[in-house]
Amino acid sequence: MALRTGDYMGRDNVSSAGMERDLVILGERLRERMLPFGWFERLSSDSVRFVTDHAGSVPLYYAQEHNQVLAGKTPLEVFQQMPQGTLDTVSVADFLLNGTVCYPYTLFKGIYVAPPGAVTDVTPLEVKSTTYYRPKEQESNEPLAYWGAQLRARVQQALLAGLEGKTNIKVLFSGGEDSRAIVSLLPKGLECELVTFADSYNREVRLASHAARALDRHISFIQRPHGFYRENVRSRVRAIGGGFDIRHTHVWGRLAEPLKDAGVVFGGYAADTLFKSAWMGNVEKNIKKIGPERLNPIGMGQPTGIKIASAQDWLDPGVSAAVDARRLAHHERIQEFRPKSAGNWHTLWPLGSQRVAYAHYLAIRLACPEVVEPFLAPQVYELAARMPDEFRVDRKAFRAAFASPMGKAGWLLTSSGRIPRLGGYVGHWVQLGTVISRALGDRATSVSARMRGRMPINQGAWSNEHDVYRDDLSEALSESQLEGVRVLMNGILTAEEANEFFKPCGGAVPDLVRNRVVQVAYLVGD
After folding, report:
1. Is the pTM higher than 0.85?
2. Dist. CA 266–CA 278, nearest whole Å
3. Which GO molecular function entries does the Swiss-Prot or TrEMBL record give (predicted)?
4. Do 411 and 518 sit in the same domain of this protein?
């Protein structure tokens, strides 16, 4: 059973017998691949081989069940092959708290994520994994110019590889700088369409339109329908397959229709986490905001991007201890190859199962014939693993790589209030002034709109409905699903909170947890 993932994720032109003879050579070939990949294939009636890329960006799943190996592209796909599958209570608690499930576990008992950067053979009695890549921490004396040049070259190589033989090119474009970086590296004469989404023709769309004109590209605006994030929740959950918060499926259903005829769709996903300071625990920002962010070697010990389960008074102590134990084990595993920066990489390895917003990428892949996210490319991920943290801070390497190719677009304000070409104190003060000015203007506009009996305009890329809202569980779930949730939550919450959870007030459990409970219920219910 081979995974259908498109040519750019397709299998190497090597027979299974050839791979058996020399996995080392295969590993060397896999290390050189330009675009994200992942596949599995049956070697025999009771053996399945999984091949994953450097970051595990195409997550694959397996289970050893009743003298056979089950395999799938989602945890749900494997679960549906099991005669009597069950949820893993600890994993569910982890998901409710963090929006992901700690590697290598999934929401279901006995179903695991295939190891990243490896060729893994699974039989009913054994899992044998040959690792060809780990994102090892490295010391480097290379200057900023080196990292900027390398980043630009590798992203461009991934773009060119993704363009090969393709027509009808489309790019997911926004008011931010990441999509500008991608478009600036596309061949100048290439015909492509930039696509941006928003609730209305708001500030986000205007920023994107100005940048598109500066890049001499055509842009299409697609308006997000009212109530989009509350539509088709069950179908989104089951298509993504469990373990990712579907609030991040920003392009879905009718909103994805304009992308389905594209030969390839490009995006700028993960640039901020791999090459900027997002989710870094060792970045210091002055309390008075009088200067740009700085690297702080202290404070990198704890994992970033997750919550400590034992600090949540609504979780059962035994369950919270088990969640923390899994997260600690994952942290210690990363420390083996990243002793100084393991905390920052807790949600970056494997990227395909640990990033809370990964449902966005998975949804795009489901909607489009082919998707290329250059920052997920193996060679780009490898560069991120080698690059010292000092060049992530204040977007130093990112600016060195893309400021010049952006041209005029590099001088235009972004969604965050930045000017892409500026950093340091000047860039910081420009951003701070812009953010304050926008906040005051938005507040005045909102007050004016309410006085006139109108809804305030959402100026951002995501709808306000993307934020957390309180689910009425009795309306969202069937009777059987609701009963299943009662049993599940009795084993996850404290006795007091389990008693309050289904009441109108809801107890102390955050609304976000209620959103995620509905998602879990849709996976296993009717």
Report:
1. yes
2. 21
3. asparagine synthase (glutamine-hydrolyzing) activity
4. no
